[in-house]
Write a structure and sequence with these properties.
The complex is a heterodimer of chains A (299) and B (307).
Chain A (H helix, E strand, L loop, with lengths): L1 H32 L6 H21 L7 H23 L9 H23 L8 H6 L1 E4 L2 E4 H23 L1 H11 L1 H6 L4 H27 L5 H16 L4 H21 L7 H12 L14
Chain B lengths: L1 H18 L3 H23 L8 H16 L5 H23 L4 H21 L1 H4 L5 E2 L12 H28 L1 H18 L4 H27 L1 E2 L6 H14 L5 H20 L3 H15 L3 H9 L5
Antiparallel strand pairs in B: 1-2
Helix pairs in contact in B: 2-7, 2-9, 2-10, 2-11, 3-4, 3-9, 4-9, 7-8, 7-9, 8-9, 10-11, 11-13
Classes of the chains: A mainly alpha (299), B mainly alpha (307).
Chain lengths: 299, 307
């Protein structure tokens, strides 16, 4: 049993790592902007399409195939720079302080717009580009073959968790972000440029989502409908961890990843249901998520 | 003025399939979504946003498909039982969910609907998986009709239902229970101090809104006669909220106006542009920022009443 479960677990953790990138972006944007961005999954999809397109271009121009690795990160950066500041300035900032219903609806409108933009620009084809996965090959440990690319994904997720934690606690900009999260008015009144913090945080959120999408292309490719699918999964992971909790999102991603593995092993037809059942159980017991703190009710 | 507008609109709806037969199917679906959007609008009155309401739409549709397979083949019975199934599901789920507010309420609804969606698309043996279930043409009050005449009968039955159910919902919203619902949105704590059982008020509202989505799901199931898991997907729920807000959640007519307007426009736009979602997304954002009471509010303002 174990020798089937461990490769499955690596598989599950690798896909959990991808969802983690999206979920941690969602959670970061939520804690700074206090808006749950329903269109967040679309940035994952756009990141995937951009990365696949650039990857295919590198292959067709017969450039050095190792270029496809920086190209993945570069794709995510393009998406972030293109959409982050624009969307935050033109749309998100009008929803600050509004009711949740309005925030959800406005971002749902954004979701519809981005879905169509993606379809118009990239069409309805699926793109597949797996050079990075081929280049890294596989490792054999104890008679089991692991894809090195999947191990890389897991390592990257760990790096992102540590990186974000260091960014938020050790750097100046990170401390500014923390201050804005703690008390927006107070931060503003002591002279912190909150608009800049909003733009930066949102752009970082978009970057993380697009990075998840870009890193997913070598194993999963890019296909229509990816945005809507990823959105709910990221949502589930962020909610399980507690909205606004970075380590919470990481733990939730691991739980969801392993729950899927167990589901695949014991009840294959339930594999897609597993994340939502975990979400449901966690939220019913702890509505604020595993790491979340209950907010005090205001009159 | 308002009564005249209402009668003109109703006459237009009744005559539309005769003038343009291709409109009938579109309008039937618009009515179905209107019911579900009305359900969402009821909850929005209490300040609760559900991005999972399509699950009740799907519960009713699948219930009807199962019942039809079991040999029940009568429009009225199917409609009633489908709605009842949704109402029961609403009562059950609502009993858990009325403890939550704001973003958590929205998320739990989403989680519930996605569990249902995943189950519907995975349990091939029971639900037909992603192929869905087909539904034979039911009898209409005991009459065996062919598909075309059944569709016409279904449309007019839908119109009558819209009037009946719409009146019922209006009475509910005007009742003390309905006012208490709006008051939950304004100040829940004060309501509790007054001795109003807030959770009970919300549970009633949740059950009613699930039943409304059930009516919609039943009509849609019989109109399309092919039921798919996509009925319960979260984007379908998002569209229901969109329709409710676009039409305006102030009155009972709002969601129906929004739904009819959107479906007809969609049918017309498909031939001209394929960027429909983009247009509707921009329109939604525009309505939220510039027309907070929706299309219905616009009509009321034009006819000289406070929106």
């Amino acid at each position: 049993m174990l020798d089937t479960l461990i490769p499955l677990a690596v598989d599950g953790l690798a896909s959990a790592a991808l969802i983690f990138f999206v979920a941690v972006g969602l959670t970061l944007v939520f804690s700074v902007l206090r808006v749950l961005n329903v269109a967040h999954g679309s940035f994952y999809a756009i990141g995937a399409y951009v990365a696949a397109s650039i990857g295919l271009w590198i292959a067709s121009a017969s450039l050095n195939p190792w270029l496809s690795f920086p190209a993945l990160v570069f794709s995510a950066a393009i998406v972030a720079v293109l959409f982050g500041p624009l969307v935050e300035r033109c749309l998100m900032r009008w929803t600050y302080g509004k009711s949740e219903a309005i925030q959800i609806l406005v971002t749902f409108g954004l979701f519809l717009i981005l879905e169509d933009l993606q379809r118009i620009v990239f069409g309805v084809r699926s793109l597949a580009e797996d050079t990075p996965m081929q280049l890294l090959g596989s490792t054999q440990i104890g008679g089991v073959v692991y894809l090195n690319y999947q191990l890389l994904l897991i390592a990257l997720a760990v790096i992102v968790v540590l990186g974000l934690r260091i960014l938020l606690t050790k750097t100046r900009i990170g401390r500014l972000v923390t201050a804005v999260v703690a008390d927006r008015e107070m931060a503003q009144s002591i002279g912190i440029n909150t608009n800049r913090v909003f733009i930066l945080s949102f752009t970082l959120g978009v970057f993380l989502a697009a990075l998840g999408g870009a890193l997913a292309t070598p194993t999963a490719g890019a296909a229509p409908g990816l945005g809507a699918e990823t959105m709910v999964l990221a949502f589930a992971v962020a909610a399980i961890g507690g909205l606004g909790q970075i380590e919470g999102a990481a733990l939730a991603a691991i739980i969801v990843g392993l729950a899927r593995v167990l589901a695949i092993y014991f009840a294959p037809s339930l594999d897609a249901v597993a994340p939502y059942i975990v979400m449901l159980v966690v939220l019913l017991v702890r509505p604020y998520g595993l790491f979340g703190q209950a907010a005090t009710r205001r009159i | 003025m308002r009564a005249a507008l209402f009668l003109i609109a109703l006459a237009a709806l009744a005559l539309a399939p005769i003038a343009a037969p291709w409109l009938q199917f579109v309008l039937t679906l618009a009515l179905a979504k209107g019911f579900a959007a009305l359900g969402v609008a009821v909850l929005l009155r209490g300040g609760l946003i559900s991005i999972g309401h399509a699950m009740f739409y799907a519960v009713s549709a699948y219930a009807i498909a199962f019942l039809a397979r079991a040999g029940l083949n009568e429009f009225v019975v199917l409609l009633l039982l489908g709605t009842l199934a949704s109402a029961l599901a609403g009562l059950l789920i609502g009993a858990f969910l009325v403890r939550y507010r704001a973003i958590f309420f929205a998320m739990l609804n989403l989680a519930m609907s996605m569990v249902l969606y995943a189950l519907l698309s995975k349990l091939y043996g029971i639900t037909g998986g992603t192929d869905g279930l087909r539904l034979a043409v039911p009898r209409f009050f005991g009459l065996a009709l062919d598909k075309a005449s059944f569709d016409t009968a279904l449309y007019y039955a839908g119109l009558v239902l819209m009037l009946g159910v719409g009146y019922g919902v209006q009475r509910y919203l005007a009742s003390p229970l309905g006012h208490a619902l709006a008051a939950v949105h304004t100040n829940e704590l004060r309501l509790e101090y007054l001795g109003v059982p807030v959770r009970f008020v919300l549970l009633i509202a949740y059950t009613i809104s699930a039943a409304l989505a059930g009516v919609g799901g039943a009509i849609a199931a019989m109109a399309i006669s092919h039921i798919l898991p996509e009925f319960a997907f979260w984007t379908a729920s998002g569209h229901l909220v969109l329709v409710a807000v676009l039409g305006g959640i102030g009155g009972v007519a709002g969601p129906f106006i929004g739904s009819l307007f959107l479906e007809v426009l969609h049918t017309l736009a498909v031939g001209v542009t394929d960027a429909w979602n983009l247009i509707i997304g921009v329109a939604l954002i525009g309505v939220i920022f510039f027309l907070p009471s929706g299309l219905y509010g616009l009509i009321r303002r034009r006819s000289g009443e406070p929106a």
